[in-house]
Amino acid sequence: MTQSRNDADVAFIKALAELLNENELSELSVKRDYGENDSLNVKVSKLSAQPVPMQYAAPQATAPQAPASSPASPAAPKAETPADPAQHPGAVTSPMVGTAYLAAEPGAANFVSIGAQVAEGDTLMIIEAMKTMNHIPAPRAGTVKRILVSDGSPVEFGAPLMIIE
């Protein structure tokens, strides 16, 4: 009797795992009661590292298109750059996971805009992480060529934020 119930529990857990994958869920918890003091608690989950890049990839992919479409002529010669801005030599990458803000507060002017000259150490944007506002400084002097994130968008560690040449 115990072996057949064990086999049924294993089959139940496998079915939950399939349900998790088929419906693109990240976690599933179930409690199965067999009697007064007899139950089975099952929690099936995927590693959180897999869904996170997929969630952040969509906003980053759509955000670069908006700035690139406004100055149409500079975007045309650099057809390879939009494919992977992180590989650009002038890319400024995020030092942390958080939410990017282009201005100090809502309604205020952005720290920088496309075409702006920046000096090393100038604030480019703020990344909020765990209720802390972190100023992101320019790693070098140059001209802001592209802004790859939109105001209020989530960013992950190493994600390209801007291109400074």
UniProtKB/TrEMBL annotation:
<dbReference type="InterPro" id="IPR001249">
    <property type="entry name" value="AcCoA_biotinCC"/>
</dbReference>
<dbReference type="Pfam" id="PF00364">
    <property type="entry name" value="Biotin_lipoyl"/>
</dbReference>
<feature type="compositionally biased region" description="Low complexity">
    <location>
        <begin position="57"/>
        <end position="83"/>
    </location>
</feature>
<keyword id="KW-0444">Lipid biosynthesis</keyword>
<keyword id="KW-0443">Lipid metabolism</keyword>
<dbReference type="GO" id="GO:0003989">
    <property type="term" value="F:acetyl-CoA carboxylase activity"/>
</dbReference>
<comment type="function">
    <text>This protein is a component of the acetyl coenzyme A carboxylase complex; first, biotin carboxylase catalyzes the carboxylation of the carrier protein and then the transcarboxylase transfers the carboxyl group to form malonyl-CoA.</text>
</comment>
<dbReference type="GO" id="GO:0006633">
    <property type="term" value="P:fatty acid biosynthetic process"/>
</dbReference>
<dbReference type="InterPro" id="IPR000089">
    <property type="entry name" value="Biotin_lipoyl"/>
</dbReference>
<keyword id="KW-0275">Fatty acid biosynthesis</keyword>
<comment type="pathway">
    <text>Lipid metabolism; fatty acid biosynthesis.</text>
</comment>
<dbReference type="InterPro" id="IPR011053">
    <property type="entry name" value="Single_hybrid_motif"/>
</dbReference>
<feature type="region of interest" description="Disordered">
    <location>
        <begin position="55"/>
        <end position="92"/>
    </location>
</feature>
<dbReference type="InterPro" id="IPR050709">
    <property type="entry name" value="Biotin_Carboxyl_Carrier/Decarb"/>
</dbReference>
<protein>
    <recommendedName>
        <fullName>Biotin carboxyl carrier protein of acetyl-CoA carboxylase</fullName>
    </recommendedName>
</protein>
<feature type="domain" description="Lipoyl-binding">
    <location>
        <begin position="89"/>
        <end position="165"/>
    </location>
</feature>
<keyword id="KW-0092">Biotin</keyword>
<dbReference type="InterPro" id="IPR001882">
    <property type="entry name" value="Biotin_BS"/>
</dbReference>
<dbReference type="GO" id="GO:0009317">
    <property type="term" value="C:acetyl-CoA carboxylase complex"/>
</dbReference>
<keyword id="KW-0276">Fatty acid metabolism</keyword>
